[in-house]
TrEMBL record:
GO terms for cellular component: cytosol
GO-annotated molecular function: kinase activity
Database matches in Pfam families: PfkB (PF00294)
Alphabetized PANTHER family for the sequence: RIBOKINASE, SUGAR KINASE
Keywords for this protein: Kinase, Transferase
Domain of life: Bacteria
Domain Carbohydrate kinase PfkB intervals: 14-320
The protein's name: Sugar kinase
């Protein structure tokens, strides 16, 4: 079935995210209060979280960005819709009129680890039919995030995976999964269906090691030392995990770049661009979004990761309300060429 919101005519390859989008309310406090305690927050800062960062990066690369998740009706949903409009992101998913989109309160006391309090909304209350109307077209990239794999909407993701089948060669589109730190909480059935779909996996090192542990991939991290041994370990990690997944694998390691492995091929190190970070929030959404955008443009995986490394390096050197800011395509390309 044709989704009229995607338009009629010559198809422009798009990145379509099935991920959830919500509002983050950042609060800086001197210390996290104990139960029954009290703290004063310094300048609360609302921003859009979840898969929005992936879609924002896609749009900044000049590629069509589409959100297929659920948006609600209310204060937070209106904030999200306005941000979509301001940043060239098209919402093609379901709308719920009976509840608002959710939000997260993020408490930071200066420590690297933050405290999160979540209030789930429309984005988490989908079902098996959430994505059944979605029909990706030629050269589209479908993005799935780990934040959509643990609540009612996960049934819709599972339905889409079953429809996608187990042979990437039979699809007209690419499938990308970034599992996020929630991977250890995903149930075995959901994880099995993800692995069987053989998507492109985009992880940081911690996520990759968690995935390897859950799948029983042969990994030994005992030889990793400061100043040496990381490259050998990353080859071992990517070779072992990639062989188990039988799918393309990208593992990000901050300023050191990323390691890439295609099925049946060798693991390749794609160097990063060391820079000074000005915040403690991850720029993984920027990296995944840029990579997806370049795949939609027809780049191969290694070339897509090269530009994503450059864009992420710029993103972590900039901060707006504590959020890394993804650059546009020309700026990322200029750094890559330099």
């Amino acid at each position: 079935m044709l989704d009229l919101r995607r338009g009629i005519g010559t198809h422009q390859p798009s990145v379509i995210s099935l991920g959830q989008v919500w509002v983050d309310i950042m609060m800086n406090v001197d210390e996290i209060p104990p139960q029954g305690g009290f703290a004063v927050a310094d300048h609360p800062k609302p921003s859009i979280g979840g898969s929005y960062r992936v879609l924002e990066a896609v749009s900044r690369m000049g590629v069509q960005a589409e959100h297929a998740g659920i948006l609600g009706n209310g204060l937070w949903a209106n904030f999200i819709r306005q941000s979509f409009q301001d940043n060239g992101i098209n919402h093609i998913g379901q709308d719920r009129l009976d509840e608002d989109s959710g939000f997260r309160v993020v408490l930071s006391s200066g420590d690297p680890k933050k405290t999160f309090i979540a209030s789930y909304g429309a984005e988490a209350h989908g079902g098996a039919d959430t994505f059944e109307m979605l029909e990706p077209q030629n050269h589209d990239v479908v993005h799935i995030s780990g934040n959509t794999l643990m609540d009612h909407t996960a049934a819709g993701v599972d339905g889409f995976l079953l429809q996608a089948g187990t042979d990437p060669a039979t699809r007209d589109y690419a499938l990308v999964i970034n599992p996020t730190n929630t991977l250890r909480l995903v149930n075995d059935h959901m994880l099995e269906d993800l692995v069987l779909a053989r998507p492109i996996w985009s992880c940081n090192r911690q996520e990759a090691m968690t995935l390897a542990e859950r799948l029983g991939a042969p990994i030994d991290d005992s030889k990793v030392t400061i100043g040496g041994g990381l490259d050998d370990f990353m080859h071992q990690l990517c070779d072992g995990l990639g062989h188990t997944l039988r799918a393309p694998l990208v593992v990000r390691v901050g300023s050191l770049g990323a390691w890439v492995r295609e099925p049946g091929g060798e693991t390749i190190h794609v160097p990063g661009f060391p820079t000074k970070a000005v915040h403690t929030r991850s720029a993984g959404g920027c990296h995944t979004g840029v990579m997806c955008a370049m795949l939609a443009e027809g780049r191969d995986l290694t070339d897509a990761v090269k530009l994503a490394n450059a864009a992420t390096s710029i993103a972590i050197s900039r901060s707006r309300n504590g959020i890394p800011q993804c650059p546009d395509y020309d700026e990322a390309l200029a750094l890559l060429k330099s």
